[in-house]
Design goal:
By secondary structure, this protein is an alpha+beta fold. Helices cover 39% and strands 18% of the residues. It contains 15 helices and 14 strands. α3 packs antiparallel against α6.
Length: 410
Amino acid sequence: MIIIEKFKDFLATELKEAKSIWIASAMISKYGWNFIQRNISDETIQHYLIGIDLATEPFVFESILSDLNINAKIYETSFTFHPKVYLIEKTNNSLIAFIGSSNTTSWGLEKNVEMNYCIRNQEECKKIQRWFNRLYKNGYLITNEFVKNYKSKFEKAVKNRKEIEKDSFEISEQVSLDKGQFFSKNQHEIFNKKYHRINNENLKEIRKSVKDSLLTLHRKIYPKFSDYDLIDLHCHHQPREIVSRHYFNPFSGNYINAMWLHYGKSPEQFQNYSTEDEKSFINNIRIQVIIHETSVGIWLVLGTDWGSKKDREHFRKQMQDIATQKRFFDAIKVLGDDYWINIPNAPAIKDIKTPSELVRLTNQEKLEDYFIIGCDIDWLDERLSKNVIAETILQEFKKLYPLYEIMRHK
């Protein structure tokens, strides 16, 4: 059915029965946003894909930021993101779609001469949904940083329309800084503190993508361990545990603040232990790649008193031997200035002058805390690009491995 007039009324009627909505629009105004919110219920699941063209009002992005249960992304492209698509899943599970020329603004919904087409065929609606989801995966989370930047450029553009094209390009560049990086901006942003306990569809999908990327990285580096002398370093013996949990778990407090890919002892080595805590991979010493909001960490981690007592006891015993102290000191100094030790008030590694000074420092570690020797690489560092991240990880693992061998209980 072709709708030439009263599109706003048609859309409002269907929105009132919406269980879920998917809206892809080049432009959403405050009026258009409020129209949508006014006509859906509090239980309606919302999905938005919005173009960057300096026309969507900052109010819309601020409203999205204020409700983390809204699934919304911005879409950056070299050209113009120009769709006007409204897909609605109704309470009876049927789908209806509107495709046409109407942006989500007062002009698009009720003032301009517009043409929209109503689609009720369920297979065609599902094709539209697949189209939306495909583009949505490549969209970017709406962040405070983006909104601040956008608002500044928007206000300036209102005063001087001639700057729109230039400013739009600058904003697009800022949004897509991750183009050459292995991990995307979204995959880092998901570990922003505000998302730690939020578990909507949008964030679930991004956490799953982090897991997939870490598994891809695993497949790139693990077959090469022997080439880098990582001869006794093993992935988790259960394939589903090679990467840390990407889903909420009530036993862990229903939050996720980081994800990691980790390597440690073999199943045979765990047979030497008697309790389940001692046999737990995560409680024992391991080398890992860990992703946070603004960095990727490469860490050597000693577990806590839950299961890593044997590693801790072995390490302390090793540090009583003068020759081992020297080996440990020499291995630490090879790491470089990017590395740190997570002991309170520990000096930079470059400032540790003697093996005995290092021993005194390590004696301060407490069994109830994780003991970490690691580095954190800025997410935009070229060492984390798609082309070289595997080599970066392998080289850093190779530097950490001598420490792992000294500290690991055998």
